[in-house]
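OP here, attaching both records as promised.
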Amino acid sequence: MWNLGQKSVASRLLIGSARYDSPAAMTQSIRASGAEVVTVSLRRQNPDSRSGEQFWELINELGLHVLPNTAGCKTVKEAITTAHMAREIFGTNWIKLELVGDDYTLQPDPISLVETTKILIDEDFEVFPYTTEDLIIAQRLVEAGCSTVMPWASPIGSGQGLLNDYLLRTMRARLPETNLIVDAGIRTPSDAAKVMELGFDGVLVNSAIALARDPVAMGEAFGEAIAAGRKGYEAGLMQKRETASPSTPTLGTPFWHQENS
């Protein structure tokens, strides 16, 4: 089991609920993935509308941990208001904090992110901040009280995969006690497996599953890839070598030559 905040979950895949062709595709994909945490956005789905009510019913029927997010928020005030709405609607103090700093790249605003994080933690929220792979910002978020930080692999929805695994590896090494969940930019199950092999605690995936030709199969593939990557990390990956090394332990002649001589 994996301790995420004050809860324990088995799956290290967190899954988004946006961009699916239909409600059925969403629910089937989420179930197939084995994810136990689903993210939802209040700003992109009005809970006061009829369609909003139907959406919430579907999410509740899944029986998963809900991680509301502040997607689309651009100011500290917007994010705080959205977080309070989410706590009231879902009865959770979890909030995935997103603050857009640039409309083109959707890169998070690091200054407002840290400021908002401090305010929400003081108001008894458990904040899951979405940030870039910048180590200093991640450290400031941890100092503010975050037990989980969510760095991107690349810009959200871009499908670029891991653009800077050096910085991600550095963040992992420098924040060994922090839950680090890679969020955004993941395109393939192999991207997710590589993240887990680097020692990250989890991966959040949305577009790569929702926009696949078969999102149900893709959800299952991501669940399997993340489990395999984590198992590989825990087993201990072999070190890279600059030169070839024979896999046959017998020195000199091949073992089959010895057996036949």
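Record two, same layout:
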Amino acid sequence: MRCDHACAHCGSRAARPRPDELATSELFEVAAALIGLGTREVTFIGGEAYLHPELLALVTFMAAAGVRVTMQTGGRGLTPALARRLKAAGMAAVGVSIDGPEDVHDTLRASRGSFKAAIAALHAARDAGMLTTSNIQINRLSYRRLRETLDALLPTGIVGWRAQLTAPMGRAADEPDWILEPWQILEVIDTLAALQLEQVRLATAAGRPARRALNIGLGNNLGYYGPHEQVLRSIPGGVAAHWQGCMAGEYGIGIESDGSVKGCPSLPSAPYVGGNVRDLSLSDIWENVEVMRFTQTRGVEELWGFCGTCMYAEVCMGGCSFTAHTTLGRRGNNPFCYYRAATLKKRGRRERLVQRELAAGEPYDFGRFEILEEDWPAGG
């Protein structure tokens, strides 16, 4: 949880380490357990992972066992020298979070100069020989400046740009005016799809196959079954893909710095921690704890509101669990859906969010919003 930022939209409220974070010996025990479970990829996140004194040793340990090791970072301190050390240790790829043009990014990161440092980090990681990507949290500060953001990223040579919504968890829950209104999803997805198709056209015009175009993709909490679903969930030139429901606890897990385990690193802690590696083996938590298996055991009877009536219900299962839960206080109804917003617009209606409960101020916490339905403004 140590971080060289204290971002105003940080879901974990990172800045200082927790007093009970895993010791070095415990970290290597967890790493060995992951290897024993057949883990194929590990992503180090934070806080800021490169501030941890054991990062290089952990990268070396896991890469030597055949695990693909990557890192997601704000990039403020990812210097060329550090990037070279990470590459030498076995790190394969680095993703740098850049949340809009310079003024937006620095506001969200609460740190002047953060944008320039993040761009420099992308260059440093690529020059060191690692695959580089970038991700953006989309909110009311950034959603109409997506093309401008992409234009700033293209010179860094990233191979992928992943978009996700700022969800009201952690410090972002303290900034309700930053959270997108559900109907604004339409403009976001339309813009991202246009940018993706443009990148494919540019690649083709340059004589490169479509699969070599920049891949603009959607995170788990954005999109859902509109006309651009396959454009933004498929690798260009590859097999068509679409959203198939939350996979928390099925193909991955999240392990917090104090050893708490949940089915996805994005999930809020209080409702979803399935145990702690200090008390149970990682395999026991993975295989036997019910809250880790909720996506495998639930049915459509869990869905409510619009999601309970949707034609995609059995496949979608209410979209991203973490976003729905941190917005409305429980999962099963996700207002941030293209198909939903488009359907309501055809009826002359739209949804907006009103905050009813504040977050408590703890890591990975959330409050509660209420959905209000209203007429779509004439001419809008």
